[in-house]
Write a structure and sequence with these properties.
Radius of gyration: 20 Å
Oligomer: single chain
Number of strands: 11
Strand order of the largest sheet: 3-4-7-8-9-10-11
Helix content: 25-40%
Mean pLDDT: 86
Number of helices: 11
Largest sheet: 7 strands, mixed
Low-confidence stretches: 4-15, 314-343
Shape: globular
Structural class: alpha/beta
Length: about 350
């Protein structure tokens, strides 16, 4: 494995940790069998989103690299190539753990250079993947955000988020907290093959219900809508109906996009499981990583119409931050790494 791009010898935003601080571990338990963890001491944890990103936020926190959810379409797979790990099985089974993430975040939030901007989590890899059950980084991260009344959001497929419900409620009392759960479809056979390491869609929607019942507003990112496999009118209706029954405050569709790294892995999966669809995908994604605009608009329109039919209203904005933090000097920003965006 090559750590050089991320070590102290590197310059600029790529210098995230020192190679001498890497500890590699395996655990002989059923939930972690076949997974290798690389524990590192990160040098920074608040990452700036590239200016060209379509995301509505500028800063992210990612305590992990790689993801045992093993979603075959995951756009973040390309990031593993920076470590000379393959973007297929390596991404699913070689997990980098930033063990000092909570303490580092608390330090960065306390810096007079930090303005208190919104921080998004789960936009690269899932912060509630299976590793979080062992390393428990998120409680310390949420506590730091709560104590600084720093607004944040979490996107996850992990039901482990319910473990931190008391902390989320405390944070929501002093700052704006946004929670979204990703459920692209409710088709069980499709889930088992494209998202094999995730909780079932039903379990995720159960987490939405638990969050909303506890007073934490929770939306659903209906992602990805997978062309020709999860986009029939019947499938869209079933998914939106289930989302509505979960008590979600909103539903936002996002059509599958296939960036380099993810594209090759997904295409191999498609050829093994649905070879008849390979030519159709080649035509649909001939223009690049995204499905044609007309197709995206059609899916969005259908989902919005179904959402209106089932009574899913727009999510309400959270309470304003209750603690004032020092303003950041003009032009100042914390040293941060650049991260891929979700869209």
């Amino acid at each position: 494995m090559r750590w050089d791009n991320l070590t102290e010898g590197a310059t600029g935003p790529a210098a995230l940790f020192g190679a001498d601080a890497v500890v590699t571990r395996t655990f002989d338990t059923p939930e972690f069998r076949g997974i290798t963890f690389h524990e590192v001491r990160a040098r920074s944890i608040v990452n700036r989103v590239p200016g060209a990103s379509r995301m509505p936020f500028e800063w992210t926190v990612n305590p992990y690299r790689g993801c045992s959810h093993a979603c075959v379409y995951c756009f973040a797979r390309k990031t593993h190539s920076y470590l000379d790990l393959d973007t297929g099985l390596g991404f699913d089974s070689q997990i980098v753990v930033k063990t000092n993430a909570p303490e580092l975040l608390r330090r960065e939030l306390g810096s007079p250079r930090w303005s208190g901007a919104h921080i998004a989590m789960g936009t690269n890899v899932d912060c509630y993947q299976r590793a979080e059950g062992r390393y428990r980084l998120m409680p310390g991260i949420i506590e730091a955000l709560r104590d600084h009344a720093n607004p944040f959001s979490i996107l996850t497929k992990g039901t482990l988020i319910l473990r931190d419900l008391p902390l989320l409620r405390e944070a929501a009392e002093v700052t704006e907290v946004g929670i979204s759960v990703s459920v692209g479809f409710t088709d069980t056979p499709l889930w088992r093959t494209v998202e094999p390491g995730t909780p079932s869609p039903a379990a995720r929607l159960g987490a939405v219900r638990a969050l909303t019942d506890a007073g934490i507003e929770c939306g659903v990112l209906m992602a990805p809508v997978i062309p020709f496999l999860g986009d029939s009118p019947e499938q869209l209706r079933a998914t939106v109906r289930a989302v509505a029954e979960s008590g979600a405050t909103s539903v936002t569709p996002l059509v599958l996009h296939l960036r380099p790294g993810a594209r090759e892995w997904f295409t191999a999966w498609l050829g093994a499981h649905h070879p008849h669809l390979v030519p159709r995908y080649e035509r649909m994604y001939a223009g690049g990583s995204y499905a044609p605009t007309w197709y995206q608009r059609r899916i969005t329109r259908q989902v919005h119409e179904l959402a209106a039919e089932f009574g899913i209203g727009p999510s309400r904005r959270g309470a304003a931050r209750a603690v004032v933090t020092p303003e950041r000097p003009a032009g100042a920003a914390p040293a941060a790494a650049t991260q891929l965006s979700l869209l």
